[in-house]
């Protein structure tokens, strides 16, 4: 009863954007075009078998693992040490044909971490008040607070890209979800190396693709 048009979805808007603004688009890994579903999942390998039993096609499915680190979710960035549970989960997922995406934060730095003292000089400040900008979530068993570091800082980009290269090397993940990249603020600190945060964000993506050309970025 349906025509092929229903399959397009967001592709309608993506194609319009590309025709209208002609952005310089990085090449995606070949497997991306086959993905038809994304499943948010924990690291229980039994869930993978349950998905297959339910009729999910692994070759068309991307598994999004948000809490994969030894640390709790959103705690202690930029430490991306994986949980010991990830390796057996990843092995089973790949054996079944799934692709796996891990959750990272592109500008998060926990004030409890040793990196913060150096990078606080590039922490975003509110464009009017000058207040330091944070993510804070005091509720729950593991309260979170981390600083927003302006990615126009070349030192931060070098640190982050290096950690992502090591993360992919260690885990064999297929994709990375760069959380909060929609947060592109006007920084009271001004330009860093002649760049604003939007330019720094764009350059980070380019540097990520150069370092990890076989990895899909969300």
Notes on the structure:
It is a single chain. By secondary structure, the chain is of the alpha/beta class. Helices cover 32% and strands 16% of the residues. The chain contains 6 helices and 8 strands. Strands 1-2-3-7-8 form a 5-stranded parallel β-sheet, with helices on one face. α3 (86-96) links the parallel β2 and β3 (99-105). α2 runs parallel beside α3 (86-96) and α5 runs parallel beside α6. The longest helix is centred in the C-terminal third of the chain and has 18 residues, at 154-171. The two termini are 33 Å apart. The model has no long low-confidence stretch (mean pLDDT 94).
Which SSEs are present, and which pair or pack?
Layout lengths: L10 H11 L15 E4 L4 H9 L7 E5 L20 H11 L2 E7 L2 E2 L5 H5 L14 E4 L6 E5 L5 H18 L3 E5 L17 H15 L4 E2 L1
Parallel strand pairs: 1-2, 2-3, 3-7, 7-8
Antiparallel strand pairs: 4-6, 5-6
Summarize model confidence as the mean pLDDT: 94
Specify the overall morphology: globular
Distance between the termini: 33 Å
**Share of β-strand residues:** 15-25%
Q: Approximately how much helix is present in the residues? A: 25-40%
- Using only C-alpha atoms, the radius of gyration works out to 19 Å
Major sheet: 5 strands, parallel
């Amino acid at each position: 009863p349906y025509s092929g048009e229903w399959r397009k979805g967001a592709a309608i808007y993506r194609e319009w954007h590309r025709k209208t603004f002609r952005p310089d688009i990085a090449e995606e890994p070949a497997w991306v075009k086959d993905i038809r579903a994304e499943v948010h999942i924990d690291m229980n390998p039994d869930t993978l078998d349950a998905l297959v039993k339910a009729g999910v096609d692994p070759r068309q499915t991307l598994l999004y693992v948000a809490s994969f680190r030894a640390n709790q979710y959103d705690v202690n960035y930029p430490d991306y040490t994986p949980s010991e549970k990830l390796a057996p989960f990843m092995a089973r997922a790949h054996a079944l044909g799934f692709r796996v995406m891990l959750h990272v934060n592109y500008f998060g730095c926990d004030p409890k971490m040793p990196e913060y003292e150096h990078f606080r000089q590039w922490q975003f400040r509110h464009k009017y008040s000058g207040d330091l900008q944070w993510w804070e979530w005091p509720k729950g068993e593991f309260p979170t607070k981390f600083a927003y570091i302006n990615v126009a800082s070349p030192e931060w980009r070098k640190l982050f890209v290096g950690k992502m290269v090591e993360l992919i090397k260690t885990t064999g993940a297929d994709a990375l979800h760069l959380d909060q990249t929609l947060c592109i603020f006007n920084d009271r600190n001004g330009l860093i190396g002649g760049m604003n945060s939007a330019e720094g964000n764009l350059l980070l993506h380019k540097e990520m693709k150069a370092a990890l050309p076989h990895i899909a970025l969300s």
